[in-house]
Design goal:
about 25% helix; single chain; alpha+beta; Aminopeptidase; seven-stranded mixed beta sheet; about 170 residues
Length: about 170
């Protein structure tokens, strides 16, 4: 399917679509790098119940779910766990990003990342200068995708982290 025939869109997770999104999963290599969608939805719920912002989305081509995305904003520092600290105060976070194994290598990742950044640049939670994300050091697919959108790896990982943070200036 070429990019001209696609109708890529983001749809907030709701009671009508969460079962379809839970069933999505990356290929075997991707399973090493990304949490399951059910774990991500539980994490979103837990954060929302504590007053934090977490917005999970399904990535769709028309009516077909092809991936999952979760965005956070101003992740609050947890004193008990340094791995759970926010990276940049008052910033957006691309918390999860995955394309289902059946739809990989077809341009959905690039199209969905563009939509995610377009959404973030509407500043739905408030102003921010940065968007950040992190990924496993050996995940070259993610590294190349994020780099193509202008994300720049931080030269040093925060203490206690096993993922590489990368930052994009929004303004």
């Amino acid at each position: 399917m070429d990019s001209d025939s696609r109708n890529i869109r983001l749809e907030k997770v709701n009671t009508k679509n969460f079962d379809d999104l839970i069933d999505l999963s990356p290929d075997e290599e991707g399973k090493e790098y990304v949490a399951s969608n059910i774990y991500s939805l539980a994490e979103a719920y837990a954060n929302l119940s504590e007053g934090r912002y977490a917005q999970p989305f399904g990535i769709y081509d028309g009516d077909t779910p092809v991936g999952f995305l979760m965005i956070g904003y101003d992740i609050v520092e947890e004193e008990d766990d340094p791995k759970e600290q926010y990276y940049i105060e008052k910033s957006y976070l691309i918390w999860r990003f995955m394309i289902d194994r059946k739809f990989m290598h077809k341009g959905y990742g690039k199209a969905a990342m563009k939509l995610a950044l377009d959404y973030i640049r509407t500043f739905p939670c408030g102003p921010a200068e940065y968007c950040w994300l992190s990924y496993e050091p050996h995940n070259t697919r993610a590294k190349e995708l994020y780099r193509s959108f202008g994300f720049v790896e931080e030269p040093q990982m925060p203490e206690g982290w096993d993922e590489i943070p990368a930052v994009l200036k929004l303004k």
